[in-house]
Every structure is written in structure tokens, then in C-alpha cells.
Amino acid sequence: MADGAFTYADGRVEPGETRNLRYAISETYLGEPVQLPVTIRNGAQPGPTVFLSAAIHGDELNGIEVVRTVAQDWPDANLHGTLVCLPVLNVPGFIAQQRYLPVYDRDLNRSFPGSETGTSADRMAARLYAEFIEPCDYGLDFHTSTRGRTNMLHVRADMDDPDVARLARAFGSNVIIDGAGPSGSLRGAACEGGTPTITVEMGQAHRFERGFIDRALDGVASVLAEYDCHPAEPVRWPGWRTVVSRDQKTWLRADAGGIVEMLQDRGDLVREGDVVCTITNPFKTETVRVTAPFDGLLVGVLENPVVYPGNPLCHLVELDEPTIRAYERARNGTLPKRP
Ligand SMILES: [Zn+2]
Q: Where is the signal peptide (predicted)?
């Protein structure tokens, strides 16, 4: 992009230009193109190229509205650099309103960086990776919880990589879960390929949740401020923050099948020994109480009230005492100053 234009196989987008395009990444059984909706916003001023993507799991909708809003509704003035907006990555899954690609239930988010000669999923991944991910300097990939569960807004990022850590902090979430992206994931492949990328998790599948969408838009503005893409916007400090390592989190799983009453919500603080939920049989004659094994925050909880033994009930991350105090001050409206 020496001349400032964003180029892809079918064309180029000049500085100061915004283009909505439909990019063919596969073909249907009828031989018609499967087209990826893409908006390229190339700012009048030079700067980094950032991708924003959503619905790589086809039923995870909150991020679609975040990416569409950035693509269509944000003012052009003062944009330094280029935004590559990909509101629906998994087009066949989105049309079917399901998580995976409908053919053999393949997970598009385990197919990266893909292959031009592989499965249909591999080929889709390879095309969209080469055209719209690889040319970017940074990326944000938006997800929700899997169907039947919900989670609070949080970021997942490989904090061992300083470029990824900078991006993760810039988003301004309270919780960052540290770890490399799974093998074959868009995040993992992009980070390995030289495009520092984070995932943002928020809410539940099959819904637009306005509160999360608005907070994520604040996060995007904060990231763009960090990299001087939108120089007028301030970088956001969330009031308190915890970076959670692999050994500071656990999934509480059901040890009995039954009907679940969830007593806590996503984002709630629980103390060791607090009852998080109960599991009862159909007659309410047996009750299993599920308790928190340590002080922490419920990042994700079950919404669907039925479980088999082994099903996840909630995702709990450990908080230390200073973070708990900051969390409580934030809840009381007395936010601490930025350290
Ligand atoms: Zn997902």
C-alpha cells in the first residue's frame, strides 16, 4: 500500500474512499457465488490498517452490529489509516443461523490460515485470510458465548506478545483472559502471520444486546485512539482491570443431570463457598448445590436450564483482593483513578 490505496484481487480503494463490496469466497450447490460482505474505509490520512470481523460463528450476532456501525455510521473526518470491516465472516452459517458451516458442521474458526486446495472451509478461510486479514496491521474479532450460555464483555489475547497486549489493553475491557488463540482460529493464525489480533466476547448468540454493542463501540474507538487512527478520541481506562492466566480460571461443570436454577448473573462477584446455582430432579426431591471454589468473577453463565453431567454451568475467573475492592468501588460508582 505504498500509494495509500487498499488493494484486493478485484480492485483497489483509494485514500478518502469508502467502498461496500461483495467478495466471492465460495460457490453454492447451485453454482452461485457465496459472497462475503466487506466494507473498506480508507481514510484520507495515512495510518495503520485494522480489520474488524464478526459472525465467524454464524449465530453470534452482537459483533455484526458493532462492525456495521463502524463501517457505515462513523464519521469519516479524521480517519487515519484503513478499516477493513467484515460483519459476517461465516456466510453459510449465518444464513442457516448456526455456529458452524452447514457442510459437515465444520468450524470456520478452526480452518485458518486455510488452504486453496483443501476442504470448502479451508478454501474460504484461505481466500478471506489472504485478501482481508494478512494485509492488516491489527485485528479485532467479535464473538458471543455459545448458544445456551451468555458471558460478560471480555477480551481474549496472547499477553506474552507485546503488540497483542497493547491492543488488548487499548480495548479497555475489565477482564482480559490471557492465552494464545487455538490452533486454526482466526486469532491464532493472524497473530502467527504478523497481524496482532484479539477476540472480544460478549453476550449470547441469536441476539442484539444494545448495552454490549455500545460498550464494544467504545472499545473500538479506544483502540483507534491508541494507534492514532482517530486522534480526537481518548484511550479508555475501564476503572479496574484483571489479566487472567490459564491457572486462574475454571469451568464449573454439572456433576448431576437435571434442571438448573442459576442464582448469579454474568459479571457477578462470588465468594468462596457461595452457591452459584442448584440442580434439581423433576420432583424437586433432590437438590445439588454448586458452590464457588474460590473468590472470583462469573465471566460466563448457563442460560439454558437443563444439563447432563459434565455440561458447563459457568466460567469463573479468580480475582485478588485489590481487584475485588476496585470492582466494588466501580459497582458503587466511585471509580478509582487510572494507576
Ligand atoms: Zn464464537
A: none
Cα–Cα distance for residue pair 314/309, rounded to 1 Å: 14
pLDDT digits (tens, 9 = 90+) for 56-89: 999 999 999 999 999 999 877 789 999 999 999 9
In angstroms, the CA 190 to CA 269 distance is 34
Three-state DSSP state, 96? helix
Amino acid making up residue 203? G
Among 274, 324, 268, smallest CA distance to 301 is for 268
C-alpha cell at 53: 470481523
CA of 202 to the centre of ligand 1 (A): 10
- 251 strand-pairing partners: 315
| Other beta carbons within 10 Å of 80 | 16
Render pLDDT for 186-206 as a digit per residue (tens, 0 to 9): 999 999 999 999 999 999 999
14 Cα–ligand 1 center, Å:
32
> DSSP labels for 211-259?
HHHHHHHHHHHHHHHHTTSSTTSPPP--S--EEE-GGGEEEEE-SS-EE
